[in-house]
Design brief:
2 domains, 13% strand, 48% helix, single chain, alpha/beta, D-Maltodextrin-Binding Protein, domain 2, six-stranded mixed beta sheet, globular, 17 helices
Amino acid sequence: MKKDYIDVWVMPVHSGNNLLPSYNQIADKVSKQFGRRVQFKIIPWNKALKMLFTAFKMENPPDVMQVGSTWINTFSHMGYLDRVPVGFDYPKPIADWIYQNCLDKGDRIAVPWISEASMITARKDILDKHDIDRHELHSLNGFLNTCDRLHHLYKYSDDAIYPFIFSLRPEPGRLHYLIPFLWTFGWKFKSFSDKEPMFKLEDLQAPFDYIKDLFTVSHIDKETVTLNPYVLNQQLYLTNKFVFSSGHWWKVVLQTLDKNHDKPSLEAIPVPAGKAGQTPWGGGSMLCVSSLSHYKTEAWTIVQHMISDDFMLKRVETGGDVPAFETSFWDKYSDIPQIMLLLDQLKKANCYPIDPLWSSYETIIVQGLINLLWHYIYDERPLDGLYDSIITPMNKKIAELNSLAWESGLDE
């Protein structure tokens, strides 16, 4: 049944419902222009993929939707996305990997919107208190030694801390912060059709030894690492329990831009670099229009409003999510080192393979790697034995999924 209104689905991420007034302004403008009601619906990120698939299956999807960068190729392959109209201009993406995620066989299928790169969020106040040299944190050894030093500084204090925290919950988002440690030791994604296993024992030995050392010098207990990453990050923000966390840096952006925050307690630092250099994971979300929409002209007009300078400034200053394209935000705050560091990291970032089955591959990979880490760190089992019992079956699942994709034509 044809809807008599234009439906827009977005995820709140860190801004919650604070952007509703801005969304409503866009809805009012488009409604007056086309004489049709516009409805913005905020859906939870962790349920968004399932909700979108269900909506398309029921042939009742939103007209405009925010789509995770790793979902784009899947949606396009299934014929769910309208092509970006000829003549529809959007600002230049800040990095080529963002542009590539908006394409399918050379056609523009999405518009860049929000970007992120994996970094480490740190307690600036604690680092300043102990005169921690930030340059020391840029190398693997320097970062490890700093964590060890911080542990000993607080070892006999009533305010004992964990220098470094990383959630070992096998959730897809955890891979964003784990994969840069593999990249910095030289590992790279292979083609899923490659007959060689995706992960070899020699690929994992050095990075997992390093991560185990980080956990060891930070003295993180089992109960803490099983907490929800959101809970861990809240403890970083609000308590003195942690110093470094592998988590999103949105709070850093908000503190940095807040004129009432004379002394921000947080800062973002790059993931430390090893022999292969420093490469963050890059991702984010794009804006797409449904191929089933009856109101495509109106839908693309809404997208145009949602990438406007005014709206993007409000979005950043409300939720801490930064634009995926060149816009006045980057110029307005070009004199702030933290903002320029974020931009630098986004430009350096690498993304996951662009593949319609990536979400399935990601689930297999994160469950295998996190499971391996858990037993390697807390059960102190040899890595080669864990590789045989966990990673070998994981590699087999990856190969089987690729074979299924080849048989069904999904790899075309």
